[in-house]
Amino acid sequence: MKHKMEIDGVEVAFSEGETILEVAQCHQTEIPTLCYDPRLEPFGGCRLCIVELEGARNPVASCTTEATPGMVVRTATDTIEAYRKTLLEMVISENREVDVSPLRGYASGELTDLRDRYGLNDTRITGATSGISKTDENPFILRDYELCISCYRCVRVCAEQEGDHAINVMNRGFHTQITTEFDGLLKDSACTFCGQCIQTCPTGALGDKKALRHAASELQIPSTEPDIEKTRTICPYCGVGCSVDILTKNEKIVGIHPAMDGPANEGALCVKGQFAYDFVQHSDRLTTPLVRGDDGELHEATWEAALDRAAEGYRKVHAEHGRHSIYGIASGRAPSEAAYLMQKFIRAGFGTNYIDNCSRA
Prior knowledge:
Elements: E1 2-7, E2 10-15, H1 20-26, E3 50-53, E4 60-61, E5 72-74, H2 78-94, H3 110-117, E6 141-143, H4 153-161, E7 167-170, E8 177-180, H5 196-200, E9 206-208, H6 209-215, E10 229-234, E11 243-249, E12 252-258, H7 271-275, E13 290-292, E14 298-300, H8 303-321, E15 328-330, H9 336-350, E16 355-357
Parallel strand pairs: 1-5, 15-16
Antiparallel strand pairs: 1-2, 3-4, 3-5, 6-9, 7-8, 10-11, 11-12, 13-14
């Protein structure tokens, strides 16, 4: 059943259980947030999403306040915008830097965008800061907590979306710190290195180490790089069909972002889908067919010669040992079309179901 409420002088419809923020977003009314991720339970920590509610004494957090029939909401009055600007100044005053590389993560530019939106090139607020960066011996996740704003999105996505509970919060106030159990290393924790914490972080406090290597490489990708291209595709590693955006610069893969609107994964990836892409442009990858000669060594050959040698080998084995002597193992690094042809080759070509995929192991 649809109900009616008013947002900024416009009557809008909503369904029971929706929050003010969700209703506003459905009707293209922009309300700034930092601790909000639509995949997570509303938290109400950053307070940037506050709005004026007619009849309420104080502004309310729109992400945690449910819409009710007849509600009258104002989202961007002068008072509310002044509150938001002050809150942003407080957040920015604690951070070592606001301009971070887009390669750090999917959401890493959210604080930067809000800084630019409110014109906060300098802040009047100075004083103590919190967050201590963690030197972590893992190849995937950078833990730069001097940029942490205690939005807890990383903690919540790890618990609510992944069910790993690998990271948590310790201490309070200026001593607040994101940590693992016993304040140890990620590799010694329950972390599965899915990268979800990286992709939800709005400041780049958690970053993609592999992607950032390219920022310091010969590509020299600056913090405000405009030329990183995104290409939507499907992760080939298993049959789930997770949607990903491949980040490329000069036709070189520099990172992977999960597709937040992917129907199969809704922003989630496993460690392989997130980080295992180096093989695509690895220097050891074969670029021409190799055939073993009479001397026992591999020699470059044409595709015709290589395919003829492979077909001859299959025919010989099939003739001597029968159809069940041939077993196919498909590669999780091959595209879906190759996987289809592989199973067709075994099932139709040899009449068996002796086919499997390395991703299942």
